[in-house]
UniProtKB/TrEMBL annotation:
EC main group: isomerase
Identification of the protein by name: Putative hydroxypyruvate isomerase YgbM
Keyword Isomerase: yes
Source domain of life: Bacteria
Gene3D superfamilies recorded: Divalent-metal-dependent TIM barrel enzymes (3.20.20.150)
InterPro entries listed in its UniProt record: HyI-like, Sugar_Epim/Isomerase, Xyl_isomerase-like_sf, Xyl_isomerase-like_TIM-brl
Protein family according to the UniProt entry: Belongs to the hyi family.
Keywords, in A-Z order: Isomerase, Pyruvate
Gene Ontology biological process: glyoxylate metabolic process
Amino acid sequence: MPRFAANLTHLWPDLPFLDRFDAAGEAGFKAVEVLFPYDFPAGDIQQALRRNALEMILINAPPPNYTGGDRGFSAIAGREERFAHDMRRATRFAQALGVSFIHVMAGVAQGDTARATMVENLKRACDLAPKGLTLTLEPLCPASAPGYFLNNFDLAAGIIEEVGADNLALQWDSYHAQEITGDALASFAALRPMIRHIQIGDAPDRGPPGAGTVDFATLFRAIDDSGYDGWVSAEYTPGGPTGKTLDWMRLG
């Protein structure tokens, strides 16, 4: 059975942020992730993790740019200094929370210049990343992120191969995989050697597993059979009380 984690940006949206950690613990989760936790003091998050015996596994970069202007996304030419600044801040936050993965976002861009910019930014970021921290790339489907540069798996795989760093890997999401390829199961099988973090949501509406077109019972068996021993994080829109959407955990 996969080890399930809860994405607290998406789950229990009706609760105050710090109360979501308590809800996850009460539901039986042992790990959580938060896409952009930067609006909350790291100390408050640490306390919420400790009182629920939870591991924080992933955050996103870049953090918000409180000084105004665009954020330094990794594929945006001319924003390399901003990207480096963002990564330093995200890394400090990750270390404070004991996070294993930072999802590095690409931003809205296109073309060869964007690809080359992203490769060079990632090379530097991987060189500077502290031991034990892995950077991840996640393709996002156009329906949820129009214009996003990293919008297919071939592009992500090619960038990971070109960067050639042990601490850069693929973050695979069943919702995006189903929307991009039409077959999440085949996508997982083809990309498994690059995958170090998994997220799940159903397609086409990013609803709870079992609400759409992905065969999660088969997917969970495939994850187990593949030897993947990392976390499988629930990142979906509950559409109602989160506690009533957790039956999918019995499929694992």
